[in-house]
Amino acid sequence: MESLLAPFQYDFMQRAFVAALLVGVLCSTMGTYVILRKLAFIGDGIAHASFAGIVIAYLRGIDYYFGAAVVAVVTALGIGFVHRRGKISLDTTIGVLFTGAFALGIFLMSRQRNYAIDLESFLFGDILSVGRRDLLTIVVLGLVVALLTVVLYRGLLYTSFDPIVAQASGIDAGALEYALLVMLAFTIIISLQAVGIVLVAALLVTPAAAAYQLTTRFARMMALSAFFGAVCAVGGLYLSYFLRSSSGATIVLVATVLFFAAIGVKQLKRRLARRA
Amino acid sequence: MIAAVELTDVVVKYDDVTALDGATLTLHAGEALGIVGPNGSGKSTLLKSVAGLLRPSSGHLCVFGESPLALKAGSIAYVPQVEAIDWSFPATVSDVVSMARFPRLRFYQRFQVRDREIVGRALEAVNMRDLADRQIAQLSGGQQQRAFVARAIAQEPRLLLLDEPTTGVDAATEEALRLVIRSLVGEGLPVLMTTHDLDRAADWFDRLMVLDRRVLAIGAPGDVLDSGAYSAIREHAHTHGHLRSDIAR
Questions:
Q1: Domain boundaries, chain B
Q2: Domain tally for chain A?
Q3: Is position A1 within any domain?
Q4: Nearest to A169 among B76, B89, B91 (CB)
Q5: Interface mutation target, options B89, B161, B163, chain A, most CBs of A under 10 Å
Q6: In terms of residue numbers, what domain contains A154?
Q7: A208-225: per-residue pLDDT in tens?
Q8: Does A214 reside within a domain?
Q9: What is the pLDDT of residues A92-138, one digit of tens each?
């Protein structure tokens, strides 16, 4: 029993669990919109682009979060603008912009003689190094996103299902899309330390995709996705302690297993329904 | 009295392509105006412009004397073609119809008993009350169309725009939709609707308009169908094979 509780006895582990829980719930709640509005590629793009911001912030001695936030929000709004106005297809734009920004980050980093190791932690995540200040940032930005999720709930739901009719009925679909992209940018930034740039897309997509298999109502999908996100993040971190594995990778692998389990449950339900 | 919809010399362009080229028309309260024309004649463009989804590059477009964008939320209900939607979205029929109430609700306002009653009546009007809890992915084409009309009704709009609501639906559904919409028109709602079906135009509409990027004819359905404008687009349709009545013959 004592050994099962072992991970919780350290301060840094407690902070890591709180951070994992918050990030898991937030990412997978936003994931509902990511899945239904087919924004998975955008999430990945914003995460990669923010790497340039982190490197610039590091070189200038500014706060990482601030650097990442500026680049992530600018990228998100830029993608939104191209999406609505542009004559170039969206996936092409994201493909060009995010690889460009990511390369800029690597370029700047490579020119430094003795670049710091903790930049790598942003690629693959290092949740065990979450300090008090990091946790505070996660809580504050997380609260902003949560508040916006509540305030914009109906508008985002309607425009996710039928943006044209929603717009005709007087809902500002364009403003809501920009708001969603900014929420997505904030979510990604606070997730970077936990799961890293490379894996954050998985946390945005997989729990929501699993929930999508199991329900036919929007609100239930969102609640179930948030629950799955919490289970993956906390469960993955817990397992990683005993397996001595990378926490970010373990969290994503737990989510992947959960996704296939959800598909299995769906198939089973279908078969039982057919027999009945 | 202010006209429900008033267009004067409206031009709408997509980049270099002119979709509407100087359209002029007036729609009054309690009137159903049908729009016919070959594919690419600007029918959907006209509806989208009136809905405020497209901005005319020139001309004058007013809905109840104002720009469509200046109207109070919930004023215009638009029923698009059903193919425009991803029907695997996690929602029931009742969820979709309930969305029509969203423009009127602030985020802190709960869905009221009255909203629920309005949704129920809208479902009743299109004969879908027993399908209220059905997942939308499981609806037939005709049921999808009826669900969209129910959503438009539940919005309690001041103006109703319908884009070919009878395409791909069976005769019974079409008649059900016609009765619902005629009764709304009877209550004073102005309706603008595109269609391919010329045979029943006189049952559906008070006036009929022939559109081919510009308004070729407008008037009582019988008169318009007898006029040269109608045979002109029939010729056009013969070469392109779009009009349903031509296919039927």
A1: 1-71+159-249, 82-157
A2: 1
A3: no
A4: B76
A5: B89
A6: 6-275
A7: 999 999 999 999 999 999
A8: yes
A9: 878 887 888 888 888 888 887 666 556 677 777 888 888 898 899 99
Give the number of A-B residue pairs with CB atoms closer than 8 Å: 85
Looking at the complex, report in whole angstroms how far the Cα of residue B21 sits from the nearest Cα belonging to chain A: 22
Put simply, the answer to whether B107 touches A151 (Cβ < 8 Å) is: yes
Closest Cα in chain A to B87:
A161
Question: Per DSSP, what are the bridge partners of residue B110?
Answer: none
| Domain over B1-71+159-249 is classified CATH 3.40.50.300 | yes
For B187, list phi and psi in degrees, rounded to 5: -85, 0
Instruction: Find, in chain A, the residue whose alpha carbon is nearest to that of B49.
Output: A168
Residue of B nearest to A171 (CA): B103
Read off the CATH number of the domain in which A170 is found.
1.10.3470.10
Q: Which residues of chain A carry a pLDDT beneath 50? A: none
Residue B32 CB partners (closer than 8 Å, separation 6+): B181, B182, B185, B190, B191, B193, B204, B205, B206, B207
So what's the pLDDT on residue B1? 74
B95: chain A residues, CB-CB within 8 Å: 217-218
Residue B175: its H or E element: helix B171-186
Integer-rounded Cα radius of gyration of chain B: 18
Question: How far B87 CA lies from chain A's nearest CA (Å)?
Answer: 9
Mutate to test the interface with B, among A160, A216, A224 (most CBs of B within 10 A): A216
Residue numbers in chain B where pLDDT is lower than 50: 241-249
ipTM of predicted assembly, 2 dp: 0.90
**Residue A67 in tokens:** 């650097």
